[in-house]
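Ops channel
N.P.: pipeline sanity check, posting one input/output pair.
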């Protein structure tokens, strides 16, 4: 079963742009953007299927790349899907070239820490002007909920444009590999 209106969140190396007051280190696009012909295919198409077919998705949700990695056995199953790094880099380039609608974000240390890793990882962030803070699953969920609300407000003004000439997602494999990483075996 495929869920419509799923959104992909990629964290990436920061870049500066005159239209943004802070460096941009994350980008949100509609999952259909991964079907763009300028992205590596079938890799982008298989990632699209992961975003829209994995259990627990709902319309309007935001799925970080780190969640896909967790769902793909902590990254062990990425070879069956494709080169996530090339696809994520391509998404950022499409966004910067305005070939799709995107939400460029300048995330702070807390959001970067919790969204850049799996859902059950604890992170300690060291601040220059204060004591270190440890963040966990609840903080990650709060960041994802805030991103989802942000996207909902954006979409209220009009849907995300994924770009033109989109490819069809690959039909094979019929069933995608899905095996959330088992932290108990660490």
């Amino acid at each position: 079963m495929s869920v419509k209106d799923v959104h992909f969140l990629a964290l990436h190396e920061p870049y500066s742009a005159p239209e943004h007051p802070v460096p941009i280190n994350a980008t949100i696009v509609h999952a259909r953007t991964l079907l763009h012909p300028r992205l590596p295919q079938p890799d982008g198409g298989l990632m699209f299927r992961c975003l829209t077919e994995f259990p627990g998705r709902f319309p309007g949700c935001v799925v970080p790349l780190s969640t896909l990695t967790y769902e793909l056995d902590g990254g062990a199953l990425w070879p069956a899907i494709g080169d996530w790094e090339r696809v994520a880099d391509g998404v950022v380039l499409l966004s910067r070239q305005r070939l799709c609608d995107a939400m460029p974000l300048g995330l702070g240390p807390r959001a970067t820490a919790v969204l850049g890793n799996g859902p059950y990882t604890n992170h300690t962030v060291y601040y220059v002007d204060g004591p270190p803070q440890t963040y966990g699953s609840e903080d990650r969920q709060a960041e994802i909920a805030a991103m989802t609300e942000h996207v909902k407000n954006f979409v209220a003004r009009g849907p995300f444009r994924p770009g033109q000439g989109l490819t069809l997602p690959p039909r094979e494999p019929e069933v995608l590999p899905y095996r959330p990483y088992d932290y108990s075996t660490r």
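N.P.: looks fine end to end. The chain has six helices and six strands.
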